[in-house]
Amino acid sequence: MGISTSEIKDLYFRFTARKILFILASIGAVIGMGLIACTIGTIQIEINDIASAILAKIFPFANIETSEFTEDIIWDIRLPRIIMAIIAGAGFAISGAVMQGITRNPLVSPFTIGVSSAAAFGASIAIVLGFSLLGSEKYIVVTNAFIFALISAFLVLGLARMRGITGETLILAGIALMYLFSAFTSILQYIATEKQLQAVIHWTFGSLTGSSWNDVLVVSIIFFFCFPFLMKHSWDLNAISGGDEVAKSLGVNLPQVRIICLILATIITAGIICFTGIIGFVCLVTPHIARLLIGADHRFLLPFSCILGALLLLIADTIGRNIISPVIIPVGIVTSIIGVPFFVYLLITRRKEYWT
User: Fold this and answer.
1) Which of 151, 92, 148, 156 is nearest to 124 (CA)?
2) Which residues contact 318 (CB under 8 A, 6 or more apart)?
3) What digits encode the pLDDT tens for the residues 245-294?
4) How many angstroms separate the Cα of 207 from the Cα of each of 21, 66, 100?
5) What is the pTM of this model?
């Protein structure tokens, strides 16, 4: 006995409602983790004091009692870092999910196509040679990292266009450029002074230390500008997941979708890493966790990856700044330590079809 149309619709709405509830619950988890992260640090602060400090700043005429010391710690040190972790994690995760979607390859992330290597090269030029393509001396590292990351994406597109823009050509062109920029960076590290070398290596570790409200504002503008355009292509990504021929038969303009998504994912990634340095594995691992929990429908996968990426990076940063306090472990190291075992777990436990 077959299932009627109304039963299929009912089943679909129940699955959809379950996914939406899951997403809303995850948003609650991010907010809860953010509050916990506010309380933990070299100086422990009670949750009531945190609430008072936040509300006193938002409602200055409400006469809410709080200490100037607590307010300074929350608003000048911890909140910018926590908000940066949330936005950066969300940006890395959606970039990874989109890149895996357009290439139909679960091992791809923006870093795979050379974005991180190019950004590291740009930052190294600024640190070692003091040369900038654009911007003042204060932002020389940030602007160089951003511009070279974009250059990498456009070079990948240019190389891929020579053989037709497919998932395979994007990956191969990206890998070639990744090794090229890594070699250039190694040359700069070789000729750098001890102090310059230390600065380059510290930048490549990836860290949220020193995040300011200005940094948060810039990264937020980039993320929230690109996010709607990526969501607009979620149906196209669903079609591409069935194969190029299926996507073409459904009317998807494959080269156009791949170019737009690649550029937007690169802009988000470049906009984040130019402030934070290289933070790996969030963009690679988070979409896999999201897929396991909520399925492969990109209408839900993209926003859920954002939430999960925010949560993962927030947890990793909180661990990094507290586990051997007062020494702060850069969050890029912590995400790699967390990400590698999980990635190996996926490699061992998932079926072969998952990786092809």
Assistant:
1) 148
2) 33, 36, 37, 40
3) 888 888 888 889 988 998 999 899 989 998 998 887 888 889 988 888 88
4) 32, 30, 25
5) 0.90
